[in-house]
Amino acid sequence: KSIIDEIKIEVARMDASIYVVPGLAVIFFFFNVRLAGLAVILVGDREDSASYVRNKKNACESVGIKSVDVCLPEDSSEEEVLKYVLSFNNDPSIYGILVQLPLPSKDVDGFHPFKMGLLAKRGCEPDFVPCTPKGCIEKRAVVIGRSNIVGMPVSLLLQNEDATVTTIHSKTKNPEEITREADILIAAAGRPNMVRGSWIKPGAVVIDVGINHVQDPNGSRLVGDVCHEEACKVASAITPVPGGVGPMTIAMLLSNTLTSAKRIQEFQ
Ligand code: NDP
């Protein structure tokens, strides 16, 4: 909340000083397209993607960042997607483009191979860090998962902070023995309730990145990779699912968009 509040103040300060409102672009076919600053391009009609885009739009609105959205059909050609990316690139009111399926251009989600390379190379800093890992960073950790989107950049960010980092992946034997050593445990495996209370060192800080849909007699609900009920009796602090890393990811997306606008406008 404090990050969102700070972004709101900065957006208002920019608007009052140089009459610039940063924007993000989202792409839907059947909605009116409004001019704005951060562009999100959504390909296909996956329900979870649609809800992420909705949350991003609402978050933009809450801080005064304008958003544009366009929804393309699942079978859109690369040329069609690129056409939108190019038009947002050429739109001076757009300071960031978020593509639900990543494409290399004004990519404030930070997945471009060049940005990933800068993150991995010691002594170099990428101009934007992927939004989910940026929301997780802390002093020392064991990271479950090594994907390009979460696990790998989280590990690199922690190393850049001089943390000693151990990565667990699907081929790791006895993961619970490793997690019990962790002062900070970051779970990003996409496996519901995989991390039990007994896997956690007493007093550890647990960041649960996992978002998993599970069915129970009351219908579908969201759970993380960590068994929250057990973990909160052992951990000193733990992020909930939903309502933890997800909103922090969105806060970081807004922060990256604001940074982009400030850089382009040379606004201090
Ligand atoms: P991927 O499926 O790309 O990667 C999963 C990683 O976890 C892989 O490295 C895999 O290992 C590892 N893994 C899978 N099963 C196990 C296991 N049983 N034991 C140990 N390691 C395992 O997923 P993502 O990284 O994209 O996402 C991870 C989770 O985070 C998902 O639930 C996703 O929904 C959520 N997420 C949440 C976000 C947020 O904003 N809160 C943003 C992005 C993702 P291997 O490499 O060997 O296959």
Structure description:
Residues 34-106 form the Tetrahydrofolate dehydrogenase/cyclohydrolase catalytic domain. One of its GO terms (biological process) is tetrahydrofolate interconversion. Homodimer. Residues 138-263 form the Tetrahydrofolate dehydrogenase/cyclohydrolase NAD(P)-binding domain. Catalyzes the oxidation of 5,10-methylenetetrahydrofolate to 5,10-methenyltetrahydrofolate and then the hydrolysis of 5,10-methenyltetrahydrofolate to 10-formyltetrahydrofolate. By secondary structure, the protein is an alpha/beta fold. It has two domains: 2-106, Rossmann fold; 131-246, NAD(P)-binding Rossmann-like Domain (Rossmann fold, 3-Layer(aba) Sandwich). Helix content is 37%, strand content 18%. It has helices at 2-18, 47-63, 78-89, 113-120, 131-134, 151-160, 175-179, 228-231, 245-265, and strands at 23-25, 38-43, 66-72, 96-99, 141-144, 165-168, 184-187, 205-208, 212-216, 219-223, 237-238. Helix 1 packs parallel to helix 9 and helix 2 crosses helix 9 (245-265). It is globular and about 55 Å long. Bound molecules: NADPH dihydro-nicotinamide-adenine-dinucleotide phosphate. NADPH dihydro-nicotinamide-adenine-dinucleotide phosphate binds at residues 132, 144-147, 149-151, 168-172, 175, 188-191, 194, 209-212, 245-246, 249.
